[in-house]
TrEMBL record:
Gene3D superfamilies: Uncharacterised protein PF07273, DUF1439. Residues 1-24 form the signal peptide. Keywords: Signal. It comes from Herbaspirillum frisingense. The lineage of its organism: Bacteria, Pseudomonadati, Pseudomonadota, Betaproteobacteria, Burkholderiales. This is DUF1439 domain-containing protein.
Amino acid sequence: MKQATPALAATLMLSTLAMGHALAAETGYNIWTNEYTVSRQQLQSAIAPQFPRKLRYMDIFDVTLSNPRLGMLPGENRMNTVVDAQIANPLLLQRPVNAVLTLSSAFKYDPATRSLRLDAPKVDKVDSTDLPPQYAQQLTALGNAAADQFLRDYALYTFTPEQMQMNGKRFEPGKITVEKDAVKVEVKEQ
C-alpha cells in the first residue's frame, strides 16, 4: 500500500471496523426477535482509542486521521464514518492540507467463515477548503477504487460456534439491517 488513498481509505475503514472481538461481550442477543444488536455508541466507543492514526503516502506525505464520527444510514442500509484528515509535506506544501472524509459500507454474512463482512465500501465525500474541487474529485475516485480493492469482504465480526447453536439446533445469521442507532443481525434456524 504505497499510494495514499488506498492506505487512507483502508486504515480508516479497518480502524472503524476492526473491533469485532472487542464487541463480542457487549453485543446483545434478543431471544424474542432472534437478533444480535451492536449499537452505534458501542462501535464509536470501540474505535475512539485507535485515533489519531498516522499514515505515510508515497513516502513523501504524512497523513493524520483524527476525530472519527460514526453514523448510520438506515435508508441505504449502510454505516458511514466521517474523519478529519491532515496531509503534510514541508517540501511540496507550504502548509498542511485539511480535509473531512466520509466513507460508507454495507454488510454481508459469509457462512464459510461465520463472519459479518464489509460489502461495497466507498468514499462518499471529500470536503476541503484547502483543496481545489478538481483534486477532491480525483481523491474521491481513487478512494473508491482503493476501498473496493482493500476493504470488500473485510471481516468485521466472527460469530463463535456457541453463538450459532442452542438446544441442539444450529443457527445462521440472515438479514442485516442498519437502523438509526444500531446494526441488527437476524439469526435464523438452519
